[in-house]
Amino acid sequence: MSLIVMKFGGSSVGTTERMGRVAQRIVDQKLQGHRVVVVVSAMGDTTDDLIDKSKEINDNPPAREMDMLLTTGEQISVALLSMAIHKLGHNAKSYTGWQAGIVTEAVHAKARISDISPDRIFKALDDSQIVIVAGFQGMTEDGEITTLGRGGSDTTAVALAAAIKADVCEIYTDVDGIYSTDPRVVKCARKLDVISYDEMLELAHLGAAVLHPRAVEYAKNYNVNLVVRSSFSQNPGTLVKEEAEMEQGIVVRGIAFDKNVARISVLGVVDVPGVLASMFGALAAEGIDVDIIVQSGVSNGTADFSFTVALSDRANAIRVIESIKSKVPFSELTYEENLVKVSIVGAGMVSNPGVAATMFDAISKQGVSIKMVSTSEIKCSCVIAAEPLQDVVRALHTAYGLDTEVAAFVGGPQDRR
Amino acid sequence: MSLIVMKFGGSSVGTTERMGRVAQRIVDQKLQGHRVVVVVSAMGDTTDDLIDKSKEINDNPPAREMDMLLTTGEQISVALLSMAIHKLGHNAKSYTGWQAGIVTEAVHAKARISDISPDRIFKALDDSQIVIVAGFQGMTEDGEITTLGRGGSDTTAVALAAAIKADVCEIYTDVDGIYSTDPRVVKCARKLDVISYDEMLELAHLGAAVLHPRAVEYAKNYNVNLVVRSSFSQNPGTLVKEEAEMEQGIVVRGIAFDKNVARISVLGVVDVPGVLASMFGALAAEGIDVDIIVQSGVSNGTADFSFTVALSDRANAIRVIESIKSKVPFSELTYEENLVKVSIVGAGMVSNPGVAATMFDAISKQGVSIKMVSTSEIKCSCVIAAEPLQDVVRALHTAYGLDTEVAAFVGGPQDRR
């Protein structure tokens, strides 16, 4: 008998009929003798509908009241899912975040979980209940209702799994597991049986939207066995754990790409000590996340910098750089959009020389020039023109021996909340 | 500076536009220097929509999960109303029932409030906040979410007013106040400036749907000054309080009628001691509320009983009586529908002889025969044929000197939650 956490996203419970299927899925696990804790997101469009309603009333609502509003979405889900399980003749009890003992920092809209007191969950489990917990939400020490921000339900599931020392935390989604790359782009993408936390973290950060990075980080910190699997099929999915064995001859585990990239170049920056700190400090102060930073060599006492930001931050970043020109003088400011960051990820890269060279070679063979490069021990990223993305990803997939003969299962739009 | 509780029903906040008007109304009170606590119901059809959704999943859902589901309706209301107040540039904080310290018995769907710990409300008031509390809900000592059943938001408002010792509890509705009778039936109905708790209780029980009896009872027990007024006009409304002064020459305060009446007659009941207890005990055990009971004189050792029940209980009541025939033998069982119970209510009746006689006289002058009569110190009820109801009520209204020259304001459908 295992203790299992099962997490279902909003699209898995998007209709009452789907809710019924999820209930059956949960009951199946219970009937196998497991003790089951379920975490659910808000149904389908519920959250968006609530946001729309709030905007009709106040286009800039207080974050506290927004949390109050949005947490009803998950509360509706847990109540209905519990009813669906009762309909199948099994005991279930639903809990809001605060009822489940999920304590967060005193921050609204993106609180972090600071503690979980699972007494009530254990009591219900001991009473043979299936326990259903609202994802995405918690309560501060002062009894204020909070939300965890994007990826919140994944984080709830992993944090609960850690707190109750669950044997496994199953993340049900509309894809079969983690793929070597987006199966909508590369038909012969390979479903991975296993992947390490670090690799998953890189893939998650790099735009593979199946698991939220915060949840993976949490899983890594508390050593929670994560399984990503489909809520529509019985396939075993992908296991995310501490150390993943390499498959024969495969150095690169997956290929990710991210179109949400703008490149900003600041040319002729007067090179005095502290220039970089001033520039990127000012960007950080405005909440702008900078990803890749490249500095070309200094000549005539000036240097050129390029860095990437999310598309939505581009205008703001330029404004910030212009605003500190008196402190950080430069000669020219340019930017570029229609870019993509392609990354190869694999824990085996560190001990295999030439992996990056293979990447550069495969990209250049597609007639595409590389604008920026960034590497770490387990990944190599290149910023290139957005087209022809598909050809580039396919070429990389083939070059690293990742192609399979079986066409991948591709579900509907993925859901991350 | 007063401490005021304002309660708004679901139709008052049925749309985001109405929500904005209610927000303005609240801010007006705040700007007059008052400290304001607001209680709100779920918006318009929200509760019905949630019930429909639950029925798609489980036609007999557990009460606990139903409470979990339905309390989201009020939580959405309080969050949105708070946003609407912020939009007007004022501070407001919304609270769920449990956050507001409302503790109930451990019963679902119809819990009674057992305690209120208003510390958090006072703290927010001291912080110049407008406090907005979700009606209809509370929490058990064990942290289970409960609902208060019909009239729940009225009860929340009155109980809160008692707990924080508010100067007044204003119940905003879509009528101008309490009328001497239904202004849709009698155009010249009189809006009452003042009415006593006991009179209001009789009127509330007798089908005047503006205030829920439980809320009035609570107000009476804790001596809370209640004001019933319109959320659409600035009229002063009706004050409900301990002792109401009589207006000159008016003995009867109001006339109520209730069409939800079925009469059941059990004829030829063998008259042995305990017969009544057996019959009405069996009905009570099935949760059937019996209203008026009339017993005719005993002849030949048998007696005839008539009693009234709600229309929806009629079939069930007959089944119960048939089922105990071996214990309570009778010769015949009949029933009658298409009836109405008309009542006159007034604290002055007890000291004015002939009040009932005036009623019987006015009814008989309409050619209507009286089937049952029931009296108390402050009311007299007659069960009569449902038609011509309007003529009867008008005749009584005139007979007791209640007519005014001003046509009454009649709002939309009333809302009681």
From TrEMBL, chains A, B:
Pathway: Amino-acid biosynthesis; L-lysine biosynthesis via DAP pathway; (S)-tetrahydrodipicolinate from L-aspartate: step 1/4; Amino-acid biosynthesis; L-threonine biosynthesis; L-threonine from L-aspartate: step 1/5; Amino-acid biosynthesis; L-methionine biosynthesis via de novo pathway; L-homoserine from L-aspartate: step 1/3. The keyword Lipid metabolism does not apply. Keywords: Amino-acid biosynthesis, ATP-binding, Diaminopimelate biosynthesis, Kinase, Lysine biosynthesis, Nucleotide-binding, Repeat, Transferase. One of its GO terms (biological process) is homoserine biosynthetic process. SUPFAM superfamilies: ACT-like, Carbamate kinase-like. One of its GO terms (molecular function) is aspartate kinase activity. ATP binds at K7, F8, G9, G10, T173, D174, Y179, R184. It holds the Pfam family AA_kinase. Residues 264-347 form the ACT domain. The keyword Nucleus does not apply. Substrate binds at T47, E74. It is an enzyme of class 2 (transferase). It catalyses: L-aspartate + ATP = 4-phospho-L-aspartate + ADP. It comes from the Bacteria. GO terms for cellular component: cytosol. InterPro entries: AceGlu_kinase-like_sf (IPR036393), ACT-like_dom_sf (IPR045865), ACT_Aspartokinase (IPR054352), ACT_dom (IPR002912), AKii-LysC-BS (IPR041740), Asp/Glu/Uridylate_kinase (IPR001048), Asp_kin_monofn (IPR005260), Asp_kinase (IPR001341). Its EC number is 2.7.2.4. Catalyzes the phosphorylation of the beta-carboxyl group of aspartic acid with ATP to yield 4-phospho-L-aspartate, which is involved in the branched biosynthetic pathway leading to the biosynthesis of amino acids threonine, isoleucine and methionine. Tetramer consisting of 2 isoforms Alpha (catalytic and regulation) and of a homodimer of 2 isoforms Beta (regulation). Belongs to the aspartokinase family. This is Aspartokinase.
